[in-house]
């Protein structure tokens, strides 16, 4: 296959490129920073990778490369867990997803021949937050800022169906691996200062990064996979359980709670991501026959940390 990927230098994207390259596929990396992409994917090690500069929010000559591709994976978007959510930052978070997806769909629509599939990222923030409700792919959306971002993001992606292209929307949970959210949680535990964030009662719907990459690979190759799938493990946990398990795996105490106000001081509105969670089940993902490598938290954390 030949696959175009946005967000390819990120946490998930870089592993996806490695996996596709290892299987002999061709990859077009669409990136705002070609120098950084060349460092991540040096040509001597990644002979099948073509690096193409693009402007996510603007039409341009970059769109023509989509015509030669079999599939497109759209993972681009401003990080939501870094820095305070000022009005400007919120606009960046929204635009990077909404306008970025618009331009990708535009490129696919104008392509001849067209790719057969678009795999578009979304997030479980779509459902809003709750300590008591359980959500699956059929659940209604929430109405907070992140839910509105996910609705706008997905609405743009759905327009690709008008061009007769198969669409897979993956609503990502918190992705665990070397880096990402877990990378920020590990240092306090190493210093014997780890513990649950906030009340500890909030739900933490997670997935191992290897399972994310496997899910994307299946979505690329299996024509029967279509529509919305929750990219979460089948066993979400509460934050207190996450902290306890992380402490056990690292052989460190996990009793020192991080108060909510400390997270709010650091992240502002963005604190909602860690202080309020949602229990999300991957009903359609399991029904599609997807086999998880890591379905329970202990095995996932043990693999990552050891």
Summarize the structure.
This protein is α/β, with parallel strands linked by helices and 306 residues long. It is 39% helix and 18% strand.
Would you write up a description of this structure?
The chain is α/β, with parallel strands linked by helices and 306 residues long. The protein has eleven helices and 13 strands. The chain has helices spanning 11-22, 34-40, 87-110, 145-158, 180-190, 209-221, 239-250, 260-267, 272-275, 283-287, 297-305, and strands at 2-6, 26-31, 49-53, 71-74, 117-123, 134-135, 166-172, 174-177, 203-204, 206-208, 227-231, 237-238, 279-280. The strands form four sheets. The chain has a seven-stranded parallel sheet, with helices on both faces. It has a two-stranded parallel ribbon with strand order 6-13. Helix 1 (11-22) crosses helix 6 (209-221).
